[in-house]
Specification:
This protein is mostly helical. It has 25 helices and 2 strands. Among the domains are: about 100 residues, no CATH class; about 70 residues, no CATH class. The longest helix has 16 residues.
Length: about 375
């Protein structure tokens, strides 16, 4: 929570202009950035104050002025002390002005919320600036989480941040696959910061561009099954598969977190359990994808177990039914879910040749119970 502007910290003339009871013409002058005798920081503070009041007649004027501050006024304000709320507003309005963001990051008074927002939405250059201050990051681990989940953050930088958190015993619960991420990073070489992106950074970016070019408008599987139930990768996804295969485990995990549906459908089949688990835990995962995964008989039991322990996915009757019918689903999971199925589906499962014996037995028992 960013604290409100303390009017008592302003000079007497600034306080007079900031009062809601101040003459309208005086407030309109302040909203245009005209405030003779005031320091640049106070002028900008007044603008933020007026722009924040919903019932302020001069609000729209103040917003327009804030969006196009004269350079001397902006630089003058950045050269003094600014309240956290003013820092936050300038950071949001001038997010694409790297020199402005760089000076704002030097303010000790920047609120955690502001830093998190910059980490979440910032460009590559902005995320590189934020990632430099390790002490600040360790005090606010949520910033590390936002940087990791920002697709503009370099892969090499994300690795360093994960390593930083792991070495200092910080658990980043805001990263859905934190367990997998933290395990993978211990086995990998952490490169030092460089002015330019590393070859791995370039691979990560190019893979993202390729995945976006292949993205479909609806959930689509990357594989097809032959008559014997064996999977084959569709030709169109071969280049994407090869790029993902060239990545390290931590890189594939992050692609699973940030990538397209097609990437997730590839990575959920990864031979490395950490990668496959991360893919199914992705915050981007949609129900229609889970439906495809839960019925796939080539999927790993760990992936199916994760689906079965995710309340969001078990709201879907189709997912529960697929898990029960899938012979790769752990037996204890499948038999537990049997009780949630309709009678017609239980009768089908009890006779099916494609369902394991313990699950068929469980279906028969539940049918008998429902008759009594």
């Amino acid at each position: 929570m960013i604290p409100p502007i303390d009017l008592g910290a302003l000079s007497a003339p600034a306080q007079k202009m900031a009062q809601k009871a101040a003459p309208q013409k005086l407030r309109e002058m302040a909203a245009r950035g005209i405030a003779p005798g005031l320091k640049p920081g106070e002028v900008v503070t007044l603008l933020v104050l007026l722009a924040s009041r919903e019932d302020e007649p001069a609000r729209e004027t103040a917003e327009k002025t804030l969006a196009a501050l004269p350079e001397p006024l902006l630089q003058g304000a950045l050269g003094g002390d600014l309240p956290p709320l003013v820092i936050d507003r300038i950071a949001r309005v001038y997010a694409d002005r790297l020199p402005v963001i760089e000076r704002l990051l030097a303010f000790a008074g920047m609120a955690g919320d502001t830093l998190e927002e910059l980490a979440r939405t910032g460009s590559e250059a902005v995320t590189e600036l934020i990632a430099v201050n390790e002490e600040r990051l360790l005090k606010n681990p949520r910033v590390i989480e936002k940087l990791y989940l920002n697709k503009h953050t370099r892969m090499s930088t994300a690795d360093r941040l994960v390593d930083l958190a792991s070495r200092n015993g910080v658990e980043l619960t805001g990263i859905p696959a934190w367990r997998e991420v933290s395990i993978a990073i211990k086995e990998e070489l952490i490169v030092e910061p460089t002015p330019e992106p590393t070859p791995d950074d370039v691979l990560f970016i190019e893979t993202q561009a390729l995945a976006e070019s292949l993205a479909a408008d609806h959930a689509v599987d990357t594989h097809v099954e032959d008559e014997e139930g064996q999977e084959k990768l569709k030709d169109v996804y071969v280049p994407l598969y090869k790029r993902l295969a060239d990545m390290t485990i931590s890189q594939r995990i992050r692609r699973a977190m940030l990538g397209s549906r097609e990437e997730r459908m590839l990575l959920v089949r990864d031979s490395n359990r950490l990668v496959a688990s991360a893919a199914v835990r992705s915050p981007q995962m949609q129900e229609e994808e889970v439906v495809l995964i839960s019925r796939n008989r080539n999927m790993s039991d760990e992936v199916l177990r994760i689906i079965s322990t995710t309340p969001e996915w078990l709201k879907s009757y189709t997912v529960k039914k697929h898990l029960v019918e899938n012979p790769r689903t752990p037996v204890l999971v499948a038999t537990r879910l049997v009780q949630h199925l309709r009678e017609s589906d239980l009768r089908h499962i009890a006779k099916s040749k494609n369902v394991t014996s313990p699950v068929k037995d469980a279906a028969r028992r539940h049918l008998e119970r429902r008759k009594t």
